[in-house]
Amino acid sequence: SNNTSIIIGTTAAVDVRYKGQEYVIKAISKLNSEGFNFEYHLAGGGNTSYLKSVANKYNVANKVKFLGSLPHNEIFKFLDDIDIYIQPSRQEGLPRALIEAMSRGCPSIGSITGGIPELLSSDYIFNNGSVNEICEILRKIDKNALIIEAKRSFEKAKEYEKELLDKKRSMFYKEFIDII
C-alpha cells in the first residue's frame, strides 16, 4: 500500500470513556500492522493520559494526534482536513458532532448507538466497542466509496438539519398559538 496516510477523526471529549476513542486507536494499530497507514486525529478537551497510554501500549503513539479543544471555526478546518469521521461512542443521544461532520461532506462511520444508525449507511455501522468491525469497515473503504459516501453524508445532513429545524419551528408555532 502507498505511504499517504488516511486520517480518521473524532470530535469529542478525550477523557469520557464511553466516547470510545480507544477502540479506534486499537483498530488503527491492527490495520497499520497489516500494512495500512492510518492516523487518528482527536479534537476535544480533557485529560489525554488514558488514551495516550492506549496509543503507547498499541505502538501507535506517533499516529495518534491530540489537538485539544478547538474553537468552532477551527472545527470546520479539522473536518475538512480528515478523510473519514468516526463516532465510536458506547452511548450517545443525538450525535451533533456527527451531523456537523456530515454537513462538511465527511464520509462517516459510527457505532450502533443512540441516533447514530439513522444517519449512516448500514455498511458503515459497527457494534459498540468492536475493534474487529471497525477494522473490517476501514479495510473495505477506497477512494470511490469515500466519494459516494461524502455525497450521501452531505445530503443526509441537509435533510436532517431541515427536519430538526421544522421540529423547532412547529414547536415555536405551537407555543405561539398557545400563548394567543
Secondary structure topology:
Layout: E1 6-11, H1 21-33, E2 38-43, H2 49-57, E3 64-68, H3 72-81, E4 84-87, H4 96-103, E5 108-111, E6 125-126, H5 131-140, H6 143-179
Parallel strand pairs: 1-2, 1-4, 2-3, 4-5, 5-6
Helix pairs in contact: 1-5, 4-6
Structural notes for this entry:
The structure is a single chain. The chain has 180 residues and is α/β, with parallel strands linked by helices. The protein has six helices and six strands. Strands 3-2-1-4-5-6 form a six-stranded parallel sheet, sandwiched between helices. Helix 1 crosses helix 5 and helix 4 packs across helix 6. The mean pLDDT is 90.
Short description:
With 180 residues, this protein is α/β, with parallel strands linked by helices. The protein is built from 6 helices and 6 strands.
Strand order of the largest sheet: 3-2-1-4-5-6
Number of E strands: 6
Based on CA inertia axes, which overall geometry fits?
Answer: globular
Regions with pLDDT < 50 over 5+ consecutive residues? Answer: none
Our Rg estimate from Cα atoms comes to: 17 Å
For the report, how would you describe the main beta sheet? 6 strands, parallel
Instruction: Report the helical percentage.
Output: 40-55%
**Beta-strand level of the residues, as a percent range?**
15-25%
Number of helices: 6
Q: For the residues shown, what is the average pLDDT? A: 90
Instruction: Name the structural class.
Output: alpha/beta
User: What assembly state would you assign to the polypeptide chains in this entry?
Assistant: single chain
Distance between the termini: 66 Å
List the helices and strands in order: EHEHEHEHEEHH
